[in-house]
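User: two proteins, same treatment. go.

Assistant:
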Amino acid sequence: MKSLKGTKTAQNLMNAFAGESQAKNKYQFYAKIARKEGYVQIGDIFDETAHNEEMHAKIFFRYLLNDFTGNDVQVTGSYGVGMGSTLENLKGAAKGEDEEDTMYLKFAEEAREEGFEEIASSFTHIHSIEAHHRDRFLRLAKNIEENIVFEKPEVHEWVCTVCGYVHVGTEAPQVCPACKHPQGYYEIKAENF
């Protein structure tokens, strides 16, 4: 690959690395809040997304290593600051993911213009992941707003993520009859294998 020194793509990679790094940390904070509020599955989803963001940061960082190891690269950007309820955090996270989604398409275009097709491809692929993250956060926020996290209009199999007890009904039990963990440890049983 040709040198990134002096390119817009190098700056975009560093800004993307910084953005993904701060998102990872925020999502880990949000995961703890979600669990404290009784939303264990949402906490797990925040942690899973934090791991995704870490991997995105690593992808962007690796592109910079050949030309910039031992050097400083200035970061320019603005990053949302806020921590609230799980609902507020989901909405804020969705907004951030939407901004990344849009930004990465622009970064892909600029990388292509500068002749960095592999980097453009990475930005394009990660753009689609950020769109998925945004949509998932919005759906989870809607579930909280409509009070349907643990109650659905149709019958489901609800599984306790602690002991594996399966309850069939329109809502998860307030307390697991087997292990006595609270409702927050239930989720709709999904077998996608």
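Protein 2:
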Amino acid sequence: QIVLVSGHLDSWDVGQGAMDDGGGAFISWEVLSLIKDLGLRPKRTLRLVLWTAEEEGGIGAEQYYQLHKENISNFDIVMESDEGTFRPSGLGFTGNAKARSIVKEIMTLLQPINVTDVYDNADGTDIDYWMRNGVPGASLHDDLSKYFWFHHSQGDMMTVQDPKQMNLCAAVWTVVSYVIADLEEMLPR
């Protein structure tokens, strides 16, 4: 059984792609790093996927889905961060009411950093194939007030990334993915 965390590696040639989507790839990688460093062993597999060809129509995600769709019942949740890694506010979530209730309860663990909201509908080109076929999905919600200042532009450089905000995003991503991976049962569908 698999909890998938992800971001995409490709970017537009005008910038470095630090925000779109280096930040999402980084916080997804950081999930595995933090869990390993803490010596935690969840009940389910945490799988990192760094998508490619997202900016060219999601070709990599489609190929991944085609290769793994026969095991769709083993995918507990698919998570994608692709809208920057600014100050997080919560998660977008796609799934049924019971699964949403569980995710809302998990988010209460993040009250100390004031990141508890659960919004309707996860957003992610690369996880859309899974969500359309019933797998719960989550996306990071963060402060998008500056996102389009840098999106697909020469401004999408490493200087856009704020280490403190990225650490908060990584904390959210790690807590949610680890707790779901360590639940007694998979999220209801």
